[in-house]
Amino acid sequence: MTTQPVRPLHAAVAMAVLLAGLWVVEGLDQLSGNALDTYGIHARELDGLPEIFTAPLLHAGWDHLASNSVPFFAFGALVLLGGVARWVAASLVSVVSSGLTAWLLTPAGTIVLGASGLIFGWLTYLLVRGIWSRRPGQVVLALAILFVYGGLLWGVLPTTAGVSWQAHLGGAVGGVVAAWLLHRRDVQRRPTAPATALYG
């Protein structure tokens, strides 16, 4: 997929606006007595599947949103630097994969909400895209992210009560899939140097 890169300032502003939107949504949720939480994913309920797309916009209180805010902004901006089309595609794949996994693996009667599945998708996308693109800058960035945020990957395991490891796992898988879909042809499209003939 060919796409125009986004300038760092524009990416930062765009993600700041999106993050501000999450805080506004949480404010409205608090004012409504958490009525918006019903738009989270209702596990194992067929009529709860559309909430896959609304659940990432909702959080279980200010602390939940605050813990997601920095990685949401940072990872989202880094993905956006690669272009709007890739950002949209990577985000959509991550949201769908995270939502379906949470819907399928979470015990019935549970509501899953939060942006962490999307965040895990962005994280793994940034970590593995260099495998297919073979761009040194992306590989170096992946190593830096792994060094700083690598501990987050433990979130795909059922280690903390009340935390949806299912959404994390699904998002992480989605990020890997998105990186493969978006970057596997990068090397094939890159022009190669003409062969040199040697004569003895």
From TrEMBL:
GO terms for cellular component: membrane. GO terms for biological process: proteolysis. GO terms for molecular function: serine-type endopeptidase activity. It is found in: Membrane. This is Membrane associated rhomboid family serine protease. It comes from Microlunatus antarcticus. The chain crosses the membrane at residues 72-96, 102-127, 139-157, 163-182. Keywords: Hydrolase, Membrane, Protease, Transmembrane, Transmembrane helix. InterPro entries: Peptidase_S54_rhomboid_dom (IPR022764), Rhomboid-like_sf (IPR035952), Rhomboid_protease_S54 (IPR050925). Residues 51-184 form the Peptidase S54 rhomboid domain. The lineage of its organism: Bacteria, Bacillati, Actinomycetota, Actinomycetes, Propionibacteriales. Pfam families: Rhomboid. It is a multi-pass membrane protein. Gene3D superfamilies: Rhomboid-like.
